[in-house]
From TrEMBL:
<dbReference type="GO" id="GO:1904047">
    <property type="term" value="F:S-adenosyl-L-methionine binding"/>
</dbReference>
<dbReference type="GO" id="GO:0005506">
    <property type="term" value="F:iron ion binding"/>
</dbReference>
<dbReference type="Pfam" id="PF04055">
    <property type="entry name" value="Radical_SAM"/>
</dbReference>
<comment type="pathway">
    <text>Cofactor biosynthesis; pyrroloquinoline quinone biosynthesis.</text>
</comment>
<comment type="function">
    <text>Catalyzes the cross-linking of a glutamate residue and a tyrosine residue in the PqqA protein as part of the biosynthesis of pyrroloquinoline quinone (PQQ).</text>
</comment>
<dbReference type="Pfam" id="PF13186">
    <property type="entry name" value="SPASM"/>
</dbReference>
<keyword id="KW-0004">4Fe-4S</keyword>
<dbReference type="InterPro" id="IPR013785">
    <property type="entry name" value="Aldolase_TIM"/>
</dbReference>
<comment type="similarity">
    <text>Belongs to the radical SAM superfamily. PqqE family.</text>
</comment>
<dbReference type="InterPro" id="IPR023885">
    <property type="entry name" value="4Fe4S-binding_SPASM_dom"/>
</dbReference>
<keyword id="KW-0408">Iron</keyword>
<dbReference type="InterPro" id="IPR058240">
    <property type="entry name" value="rSAM_sf"/>
</dbReference>
<feature type="binding site">
    <location>
        <position position="35"/>
    </location>
    <ligand>
        <name>[4Fe-4S] cluster</name>
    </ligand>
</feature>
<keyword id="KW-0949">S-adenosyl-L-methionine</keyword>
<dbReference type="InterPro" id="IPR050377">
    <property type="entry name" value="Radical_SAM_PqqE_MftC-like"/>
</dbReference>
<comment type="subunit">
    <text>Interacts with PqqD. The interaction is necessary for activity of PqqE.</text>
</comment>
<dbReference type="GO" id="GO:0051539">
    <property type="term" value="F:4 iron, 4 sulfur cluster binding"/>
</dbReference>
Amino acid sequence: MSRAETLNRPASTHPLPPPPMGLLAELTHRCALRCPYCSNPLELDRRDRELPTAVWKRLLDEAAALGILHVYFSGGEPMLRPDIAELVAHARDVGLYTNMITSGVGFQPAALDAVAEAGLDHIQLSIQAMDAETCDRVGGYAGAWQRKHMVAADIARLGLRLTVNAVIHRENAHQTKDFVQLAEDWGAARIEIAHVQYYGWGIVNRARLMPTRQQVERAMADVEEARARTAGRLVIDCVLPDYYARYPKACMGGWGARLMNISPAGVALPCHAAQTIPGLAFDTVQERSLSDIWYHGAAFNAFRGTDWMQEPCRSCARKDLDFGGCRCQAMALAGDASATDPACSLSPLHKQIVALAEAEAASHRSDFIYRGFQGAPKPQAERQMVP
Ligand code: SF4
Ligand code: FES
């Protein structure tokens, strides 16, 4: 079989998977913030390519019929869509649990009241740092710090269930404890301490974001201490920077296993970065139903199960736990999406990855390449790992 045939093998070679748990509805790529680690693609969908309200409503109907439980309204900044309250109300009407993933910036306070009134179940608010200057600089938006605090107060006033999202990197890893305190102060039920994942804009800025191993160890110790202190009051989820980890993360809970990601223009993706894998054929929601794409779409079937794995994953006892790590990271770092994720200590490339991370962490670069519709220079660093 050729490489393209392998990636686009028909669904009949797989048993049907269970339905997805969640639909990540990327309503727009527009966003007031310009975070240098954004997971959106380097080539963003412009406003005139965004799906109209009627199509999103049809997708929410299809999602509920397929057995999906959660919808995550995301972006970009989903609150920039003028139809956001209408979509939240529709999702509720068809029985979906509604989540909003917001930066808190760029929309009028009344929009938040409207989504609360529409029945929004849960909101996730990001914060870029624990001091105003770094927060505004990382987000590329003057006044973001102040604005986020105002939105947090509105969320409390509206009684919305809150998760705080703190993306961790070299410039804020020392603030881990303070992020947890902020989540408590804001009345959050949960905080995500999410170390940057190096794809999308993150890989372009890797040398500017990579923490040192010592920073990571300190941050992890802070998380453990905070967990003991806040047990029963606050859930603290933590995503490690896997270049320093022993084993990789189970990216997306397994390829085509738990989530469907719909881009603003209607491309159905198994993960944020799937379009960085050459040879995959992606379906659009304009052409096929969610159910048809989930069960029979070539891209969703490309890395389901374990048949596609190479050694050392193929004979590894952890293959059903981490699914060989992240396919997009394997593509970026090993040049082969079906290789063992080089973040795994069992990968033959792992030592090179760790050396690369340590060198980049010591680089002291802080000249962020900000996310934007202008695109980004082609990442050079990732190519260092292609044999
Ligand atoms: Fe996971 Fe593959 Fe590493 Fe085993 S070899 S731990 S399955 S990535
Ligand atoms: Fe695509 Fe991990 S981001 S599989």
